[in-house]
Design goal:
- About 6% of the residues have low confidence.
- The chain folds into two domains: 30 residues; 161 residues, no CATH class.
- The radius of gyration is 20 Å and the shape is globular.
- The chain is an alpha+beta fold.
- The protein is 35% helix and 17% strand.
- A five-stranded antiparallel β-sheet has the order 1-2-3-4-5, with helices on one face.
Length: 199
């Protein structure tokens, strides 16, 4: 066997070994009792699509990143519905925010703009859900987050709720990116202290 053949055989063996290891790691991380979480820190929250696209998480190569970006985008809703929907359209990938989804978000957030802020660390009813910069959010998985291929359900914790709330995502296999599918975390939370007559 010549030197070239020997090098070729070594390279093929290494590629096979690394590919097997990658597949094994991927399989082991899906639904096998994992309870990982990832934290994301934003110096400022995006106010428009170009600012969103400038963030490093915009690669959306993990569903955790897409959830963090979604919550950051929703914080802009009070200032501009249009800018928020434009960011969410981008995060939905091949789809766009439907008229029904827009109405749902408007109903949930109008006069309750604090709800998306409540998912950032440090936001509580006592401080009116005003987290301090830099803005940090933690995104969680559970043992069932990846039960269906190309789908994920991840979780975020509000400072005004006892139970975590979910965001559903869908992966596009051709790019490996995870896109927003359904925002399931905009239901009622405890009122900010200054708005609560019983506080």
């Amino acid at each position: 066997m010549g030197l070239f053949d020997s090098l070729k055989q070594m390279a093929e063996s290494t590629i096979r070994r690394e590919a097997t290891k990658a597949v094994t790691n991927a399989v082991n991380s899906i639904g096998k009792g994992k309870n990982r979480s990832e934290k994301f820190v934003f110096n400022t929250l995006p106010t428009n699509l170009s600012e969103l696209q400038a963030l490093p998480e915009i690669s959306m190569d993990t569903p955790f990143k897409t959830v963090a970006l979604t919550m950051a985008a929703l914080c802009q809703f009070e200032n501009s519905n249009d800018a928020t929907f434009e960011m969410l359209d981008f995060l939905k990938g091949p789809e766009s925010v439907s008229p029904y989804e827009k109405q749902f978000i408007k109903e949930r957030l109008t006069d309750k703009y604090y709800i998306p802020f409540s998912y950032f660390i440090g936001a509580t009813p006592e401080n009116g859900y005003a987290p301090s910069a830099p803005f940090t959010i933690e995104v969680f998985e559970n043992p069932y987050s990846f039960d269906n291929e190309n789908w994920a359900t991840l979780w975020v914790k509000s400072g005004g709720a006892d139970n975590m709330r979910s965001v559903k995502l869908r992966q596009k296999p051709s790019t490996g990116q995870w896109f927003l599918n359904d925002i399931q975390c905009l239901s009622e939370i405890r009122l900010p202290k200054e708005a609560d007559p019983w506080a």
